[in-house]
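In the design runs reported in the main text, the only information available to the sequence generator was the tokenized backbone. The following block is the verbatim input for one such run; it is reproduced so that readers can re-run the procedure and compare outputs position by position.
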């Protein structure tokens, strides 16, 4: 079993960002690490503000995200990155 790791870029976003090459982790079936949830909450992610949400993308796909409040990179298992890439390809 492979434990390969890649890197993903996580973005906290306010409002729509239709041109972002990124997906919402829940929609893609990706579990959000606790470390990212804690970080995102510090940048406004809250159940009280549904206009602020998370996006994720493989590092090599990262680009401009309209409405981005903050972003950070974090290691991600290769299988999860493959799931994100598949979701991007389905858009």
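Verbatim output:
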């Amino acid at each position: 079993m492979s434990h390969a790791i890649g890197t993903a870029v996580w973005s906290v976003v306010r409002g729509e960002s239709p041109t972002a090459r990124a997906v919402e982790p829940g929609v893609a079936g990706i579990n959000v690490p606790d470390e990212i949830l804690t970080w995102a909450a510090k940048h406004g992610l809250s159940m009280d503000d549904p206009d602020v949400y998370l996006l994720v993308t493989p590092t090599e796909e990262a680009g401009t995200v309209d409405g981005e409040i903050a972003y950070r990179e974090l290691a991600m298992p290769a299988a999860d990155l493959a799931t994100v890439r598949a979701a991007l390809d389905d858009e």
